[in-house]
Amino acid sequence: MMMEFLTHEWLGKPVWMWLGFHALVAGLLAFDLGLLHRDKNHEIGVKESLLLTAFYFTLGLAFGGWIWWMLGFDPAQEYVTGLVIEKSLSMDNVFVIAVILTSLGVPRAAQHRVLVWGILAAVLLRGLMIGLGAALVQQAHWVLSVFAAFLIYVGIKMLVSKEEDEHDIQNSASMRLLKKWVRVTDKPEGQHFIVRKPDPKTGKMVRWLTPLAVALVLVNIADVIFAVDSVPAIFAITTDPFIVYTSNIFAILGLRALYFALAAMVDRFAYLKTALALILLFIGTKIVVADTLELVHLPPWVSLVVTLVLLTLGVVYSLWRTRGAAEPEAEKARAEVAHRT
Questions:
Q1: C-alpha pair distances (Å), 257 with each of 43, 48, 94
Q2: Any idea what the Cα angle at residue 298 is, between residues 292 and 303, rounded to 5°?
Q3: Gap between the Cα atoms of 122 and 166, Å rounded
Q4: Mind giving me the DSSP string for 19-75?
Q5: Pick from 22, 80, 119, 332: most CB atoms within 10 A?
């Protein structure tokens, strides 16, 4: 009976493959949170962040090797392409998260806690969105054309939109509206999401949300918004729900580690958004030319190469154009170290 259940197909793959992948994800989260980061006050530095990013990305590629062994070369090629595209698009999400946490005054030691719970929620939300997208594509193939139009629209919007100034979320209209409905403390309370404090009007002990709780909500909203871009992008590579889901989740698992490296150098990636916009435009155009109009056939490796080339050019050009800004940041970092010692 159990073997029959495990070998039963769900969304095109045996149940044991889905259960095995989720067991792997649960084990990684337990290892990361239970062993690597038991100290809640531990601040993740750039070096540790890069090592963790490399670890998760290597593990993601190794999972692609397992897909090659189990399902064949083409699914593995689609998975790796999807992983690289999702990882690339998640970089823009990192910069938005950095603005949210900085504006709310969340200490660096507490940012890890917000990102952990944000990733757990993101896994659930991405699963729901991918399941919905897969159902739509299976019912009507023209949905891919809608995805293509949306990706092209977002890509053009990213190209023509001007860089916005740093947002003051604390004084924004949405924050003022939130504070009218719920109690929010002015400053973080350690690593707590909810605290009990006296009401200024009545003096009674009541529950208050902390900036960490607000940051968690905003981070998840940001992930949903970016998922609206990234989920259609991966469906342009493959409509296999297992490949779409696993590549998305592996990209998300490395997002927290990637955050602490990119957030420290956010000002040096000024032209990365242009590269991401071009990636979205390419993927959207690919759907129109290859899938909708069926004019040419583009294998997944073409999308992988184009994505890697555009991403590399965006990173290298950004670092080259902002090379003069690195010295003041280095001097500032050395001054902070000297002050502490």
A1: 12, 8, 10
A2: 105
A3: 25
A4: HHHHHHHHHHHHHIIIIIT--TTPPP-HHHHHHHHHHHHHHHHHHHHHHHHHH-HHH
A5: 80
Crossing angle of helices 241-253/108-139, nearest 10°?
170
| % of residues, the chain, pLDDT over 90 | 11
**What pLDDT digit, counting tens, does each position of 7-38 carry?**
888 778 888 999 999 999 888 877 776 655 56
Burial profile 195-205: b = 16 or more Cβ within 10 angstroms, e = fewer = beeeeeeeeee
- pLDDT exceeds 50 at position 333: no
| pTM, 2 dp | 0.77
Tokens 């969105």 belong to which residue? 129
CA 214 to chain centroid, in Å, comes to 18
Decide: 115 and 256 in contact? Cβ < 8 Å.
yes
Which tops the pLDDT comparison, 133 or 337? 133
Cβ neighbours around 61 below 10 Å, total: 15
Residues forming a β-bridge with 209:
184, 194
Decide: 129 and 227 in contact? Cβ < 8 Å.
yes
